[in-house]
Design brief:
By secondary structure, the protein is α/β, with parallel strands linked by helices. It contains 11 helices and 16 strands. The strands form 3 sheets. Strands 3, 5, 6, 7, 8, 15 and 16 form a 7-stranded mixed sheet that branches. A 6-stranded parallel sheet has the order 11-10-9-12-13-14, with helices on both faces. Strands 2-1-4 form a 3-stranded antiparallel sheet, with no helix packed on it. The radius of gyration is 19 Å and the shape is globular. About 45% of the residues are buried.
């Protein structure tokens, strides 16, 4: 099968399009013919080697974390899917590889594709949808009447998180560039801060939650927005000790992550708020709940550009510009 392969970690390097064997099917697996694959900054960061210490991928391997496609074959213990089903997923860590014609996915990571979405639209959802769900519904348990600041509202996670937060009944503020103000307002943001003209930490206060996907400068400034008891959750780091424990990292790496996050955790404690890092996990059950919201019209996908499969490297380069509104997708069929 055709696939885009990472031969070695290197910043801004091109993936190699080549031939790879069709994946073997375990008893709990579903073999999926991939029709579309969503791209993420996570793909770029893994390619660049930023996650080498905590994600044990050994080149060469196939990159890619989002898929939509059709079930071809199922393992002997699979009960929920059958050949011909249209599905989508974010495969679990250690078994990624959606930039290929086929992939074997554990049944627990898979969900039926929303009926009202195209394959390309569906492929844009899993990673960002699950990230937003696991932050807002699981980690902070966002509820009606609370206030949340979602940074980078026009990005992949931001466009989904704004819609989910509004559905949960929260008042939503977001940061965005001048050209994206109308987009985030139309998605449901109540307060929009143009980061090119305003300092968000000077105009926002009394918030219950901040979802950060940007750098350390924005992370620290976000503390000023929170009220005592508030929660700062970052999906862009630095990883914290709890994440190290969840990943089962060795003592040296646990110490390194503790030191990396010490400064922000100390500053958060001084302001009587909490800091935590979230690295999303594959979850087909949660994805099925997201499907229900999409089919009900509560959440809609935001797709910036769709590239043909053979232009995957060009699509990754476009993501790196930081100009994408929502998600970038490549199509195979």
């Amino acid at each position: 099968m055709k696939a885009f392969i990472l031969d070695r970690y290197k910043k801004k390097s091109a993936l190699r399009m080549g031939e790879a064997p069709e994946p073997a099917l375990l008893d709990d697996d579903v073999l999926v013919e991939i029709h579309a694959a969503g791209l993420n900054m996570l793909d770029v960061k893994i390619r660049d080697g930023e996650f080498k210490p905590i994600l044990a991928y050994r080149p060469p391997f196939i990159l890619g974390h989002d898929l939509a496609g059709v079930v071809v074959k199922v393992g002997v213990r699979v009960k929920s899917f059958k050949p011909g089903d249209e599905v989508y997923a974010r495969p679990r860590d250690g078994r990624v590889g959606t930039l290929a014609e086929y992939i074997a996915v554990n049944e627990a990571d898979l969900a039926l594709k929303p009926k009202n979405l195209s394959m390309a639209e569906a492929a844009s959802i899993p990673l960002v949808g699950l990230t937003a769900w696991q932050v807002l519904s699981d980690r902070v348990k966002l509820r009606k009447g609370q206030k949340i600041l979602i940074h980078a509202g026009s990005g992949g996670v931001g466009t989904f998180a704004i819609q989910l937060a509004r559905h949960l009944g929260a008042t939503v503020a977001t940061t965005a560039g001048t050209s994206n103000l109308d987009l985030v307002k139309n998605l449901g943001a109540d307060v929009v801060v143009d980061y090119k003209r305003q300092d968000f930490e000077k105009v926002l206060s009394g918030y219950d939650v901040v979802l950060n996907s940007l750098g350390s400068d924005t992370l620290e400034k976000s503390l000023a927005v929170l009220k005592p008891g508030g929660k700062l959750v970052s999906i862009s780091g630095p990883p914290d000790p709890e994440f190290a424990r969840e990943q089962g990292l060795n003592a040296i790496l646990r110490l390194v992550l503790r030191l990396l996050s010490f400064k922000i955790r100390r500053k958060a404690k001084a302001r009587r708020v909490t800091y935590s890092f979230l690295f999303m996990r594959a979850n087909g059950s949660q994805l099925s709940q997201i499907t229900a919201l999409i089919e009900a019209g509560v959440i809609r996908p935001v797709v910036d550009r769709v590239f043909p499969f053979d232009e995957t490297n060009e699509a990754l380069a476009y993501i790196e510009t930081g100009r994408a509104k929502g998600k970038v997708v490549v199509t195979l069929r």
